[in-house]
Amino acid sequence: MTKLNYAYYPGCASQEITKEANSTTRLVAKKLGIELHDMPKANCCGAGLLTDYDYDLYIALNARIFAEAEEMGMDILTICSTCLMVMSRAVHDLKTKPGLLEKTNEVLAKAGLHYSGNVKVKHLLWVLAKDFGVDRLAREVTSPLGPLKAAPFYGCHSLRPSDALGFDDPEKPWSLEAVLRAIGAEVVEYTGKTKCCGFQVDLVTEETAIEMTGTRLLDAKAQGAECIVTPCPFCHINLDNYQNSAEKQLDADIGLPVFHLAQMVGLALGLKASHMGMSRHMVSAEKILQR
Amino acid sequence: MKIDLKIRRYNPSSKQGREPYYQAYSVNASEGMTVLEAMLEIVGTQDPTLSFRRSCRSSICGSCAVKVNGFTKLACSTQIIPEHQKTGEMVIEPIANHTVLKDLIVDFDPFWKKMDKVKPYLIPPESQTEEVAITQENAAAIDDAQKCIMCGSCNSECNALEIEKKYLGPAALAKAWRFVGDVREEGGRGRLGRLSDDHGIWDCVRCVHCVEYCPKGVEPLTAIERLRARALEENIRDNHGAKHVDAMVESVKKVGRLDEAAMTFKTLGLLRSLGMIPMGLKMEMHGKMPHPHLFPQIKKIGEVRAIYKEIEGRKKTSKKSRKVKRRKTD
Q1: Given this model, what pLDDT does residue A49 score?
Q2: Which of A15, A284, B73, B119 is the most interior residue, by most CB within 10 Å?
Q3: Contact A231, A176 (CB under 8 A)
Q4: CB–CB of A101/A90 below 8 Å?
């Protein structure tokens, strides 16, 4: 089987606040023989906020990231759904909007750069579900997770806008469920799994953000979930860091540990919890880990 | 093929319908049959009491938006067989984030009130004596926003509106951009000031659902992003949303990345940042507190700054050229 190589773009969140997602992804990739190549020049994708400032700046700065990946001759692998959405939208626009690629290259030329328009952006989730493959992943499992009722939480940006992302079906997504089943977890169905966690307005309309987070968590809990698994560090920040605030604001007991996708896969591959930064979570994962 | 439907019924004026319930129907679906055609067949041949709005049957009037298997679609442009094949079900419900009046009919009054609030009409200069030349580029900027048929699909799927009922919502904001982005408009700055108030442009959570479910390609989120960018251009910054964006723009220029701690401080200001201390301490205990400016700068930050410089320069030129070149008619 050909070796999988990617230009690795962890995103800003996972280089600092959720760095356990980054370090764990590296461990999991190593275990699975997926080669992650660092992008030392890569800038922030803008997380949507740069788009609010200036669309052309957003496109040009993302094209700078793509130029680096093109130089490396690899697809980009990210572990952040927001980076995925923001970069995919830029890739899509640069491909489909007449004149945009040329105009952007004029800007890039001022920095001595060029993007030819052929980069693909993928999420770790997609790589596990497709490039690597769930069957192959299932064969690598040494410590199956069952019985564990895990609620997949996609959030918004790993699914929408579906035409720019071009991978999963936002109305009937399969990738996260398929990966969870491959590693032996029982998948919990609930209504909020493809909805917003509220992260984007944490600092703007905090009450809305907290209510959103709490609603998703309570939805999952009502369906018997014992934990949440998310491919997005921003969703993790809200579901985990803000869970306590949500309990207070909604006057409800939640207590649901939240795992990064890589951590859950890592557990099934026999990696030690202590090596995957689980103590960094605000909601203790002990009751799951002790089983 | 025979397809079973479950339709949500509700009729507050009847004894049976006071509490919402699901009623089962079944239709013989032919290739290409739409959800609306199935509903019309039910009304015509099985149950004349089933209520819903419809008019043009061709995605122009915007009357027939409903939830099909949980997601908002125009009944007239959604084929029943492929939808049914996707999940094995055919559940039809009224759109969300609106009060149901009867069966699939919802109250659109709040929708129209929000439309009214953004003044959905052009406000030209008081004494318009000059002819305004409109370039293709000028027209393209508002083209998508003009396609709205007011079906309410975006508002039905909006995750922010689900929590915050006072939020203006994607439909009204897309309409607002249609006029703010119009070069003939004079009241843009005033509009942007009002739109930057509570429950305006900064309430959007960027869930992208409005883009996904608009049946006409309006892309309300894109309109909201343009309104935000224009508000910043007009220097309307006295709100957390604008400060958040400014902090990001500065952070990327400085280190090439997002500096979480600096962003929190710059967005919230000193007083509200102090309010974050309890959470900060808890995060610190878990080793999660982001520390400002510990980020190593990315390699070749000069490239990023060169891009900023070039874009800022172009922005100034385009702002100037937007000031409409008016030609005296006399």
Answers
A1: 96
A2: B73
A3: yes
A4: no
Nearest to A41 among B245, B298, B307 (CB): B298
Question: Nearest residue on chain A to B303, judged by CA atoms?
Answer: A111
B287:A280 CB<8 A: yes
For A6-19, b/e burial (b = at least 16 CB within 10 A) is: bbbbbbbbbbbbbb
The C-alpha atoms of residue B178 and residue B227 are separated, in whole angstroms, by 10
Which domains occur in chain B, in start order? 2-106 (3.10.20.30), 109-233 (1.10.1060.10), 249-304 (no CATH)
DSSP string, B87-154: HS--EEE--SSS-EEETTEE--HHHHHHHHHT--S----SS--EEE---HHHHHHHHHHHT-----HH
Answer whether residue B302 shows pLDDT above 50.
Answer: yes
Q: Say which residue the tokens 């224009």 belong to.
A: B230
Q: A85 and chain B: CB distance < 8 Å anywhere?
A: yes
- Here the ipTM equals 0.96
pLDDT digits (tens, 9 = 90+) for B59-118: 999 999 999 999 999 999 999 999 999 999 999 999 999 999 999 999 999 999 999 999
Average the pLDDT over B145-161 and give the result.
Answer: 98
Average pLDDT score over chain A = 96
Residue A93 and residue A59 in contact, taking contact as beta carbons nearer than 8 Å: yes
